[in-house]
Amino acid sequence: MKDIHILAPGPLMPMVLDQLGEKFTLHRLWEQQDKDAYLKSVAPDVRGLAVGGHVKVDQAFISHFPKLEMVSNFGVGYDSVDAKYAGQHKIIVTNTPDVLTEEVADTCLGLVLMTVKEMPQSEQWLRAGHWANKSPYPLTHTTLRGQKVGIFGLGRIGKAIAKRLEAFGVEIAYHNRRKVADVSYPYYNSLQELAAAVTMLISVAPGGPETHHIINADVFKALGPKGIFINIGRGSAVDEQAMIAALKNKVIWSAGLDVFEHEPHVPAELIALDNTVLLPHIGSGTHHTRNLMGQLVVDKLTSWFAGKGPITPVAETPWKK
Predict the structure, then answer these.
(1) Same fold across 5-99+288-305 and 101-278
(2) Exposed, middle or buried, 105 (CB in 10 Å: 0-12/13-18/19+)?
(3) Which of 83, 61, 82 is nearest to 317 (CA)?
(4) Domain map of the chain by residue range?
(5) Which of 271, 278, 273, 280 is nearest to 251 (CA)?
(6) Tell me: the pLDDT tens digits for 154-170?
């Protein structure tokens, strides 16, 4: 397959780059001093893209490659790739689902417990010497007992989160674009209706135009002053300023966040709040899971160019099983 040219626009894991370099002719765009000139020289031969992080693969970028057949995306979310445009031009777009489902669900449950039990705040209380010199940490106002949890985005990860939450004896409901056939949880027709019916709202929503700022001031108002908001999906789904206002003004009780609207930049106002738990997007962040994701990026390109068809094509992709 060395006659097949693959472009990596940005850095990827060494194990991904090493394998792609062995199998294909690999072009590393981010390493080039004059990226525009380099891109112009190699683009006519490129048949595959290996992308990760937040590298923007929009219509303008895709248009550079007349022979492009596949975009292999590192991550389950692919909102940085214009999959609709790619699909319209018979370009396969793939992501890395399944291999990170359990890891992200674990992180979500940790974030839920940290937020409800105020674990980071109580740890800082201890580290500051308050326990020894002042008093025990104040009793928390919230608990998992009696919670009704709403999940926005009951896909693979959402279901894994729900399964874990069942062990805590909480009620579960959800909102999706449409009902999920194989679950018995109550379904709400709108996100606002779901928020009004629950005490904790967990967003597992993907990014992209359809979900941009869908979690807004009205949703937070519906969630209410005892409500807890958890985001393990995409930061762009949340109107971040509306969330900050809701937290400041006690429109909702607290928030636990692993994702933000303009990562890695987190608003100072959010950091200053004492009713938040903030994590640096560590949802799938273990060597074990990232290695599985990286291997899948390689396997998808290998399968396609070996004539075996795409692995994990996204919904917009023009491929019929």
Answers:
(1) yes
(2) buried
(3) 83
(4) 5-99+288-305, 101-278
(5) 273
(6) 999 999 999 999 999 99
CB atoms within 10 A of CB 168: 13
Considering the segment(s) 5-99+288-305 as one domain, its CATH architecture is: 3-Layer(aba) Sandwich (3.40)
Taking the CA atoms of 167, 179, 110 and 227 in sequence, report the sign of the dihedral they define.
negative
Strands (E), the chain: 5-8, 25-28, 46-51, 70-73, 92-94, 148-152, 171-175, 200-203, 228-231, 254-257, 276-278
Does the pLDDT at position 318 exceed 90?
no
**How many angstroms separate the most distant Cα atoms in the chain?**
70
Kindly list the catalytic residues.
Answer: 234, 263, 281
Give the CATH fold of the 101-278 domain. Rossmann fold (3.40.50)
**3-class DSSP state for residue 232?**
coil
At residue 135, the pLDDT reads 87
Q: How far apart are CA 17 and CA 164, in angstroms?
A: 35
User: How far lies 78's CA from each of 179, 209, 237, in Å?
Assistant: 23, 12, 14
Give the range among 59-63, 105-109, 112-116, 142-146 with minimum mean pLDDT. Answer: 142-146
Report how far residue 85's alpha carbon sits from residue 89's, in angstroms, rounded to the nearest whole number.
Answer: 7
| Residue 41's pLDDT band (cuts 50, 70, 90) | very high
| pTM for the structure as a whole | 0.91
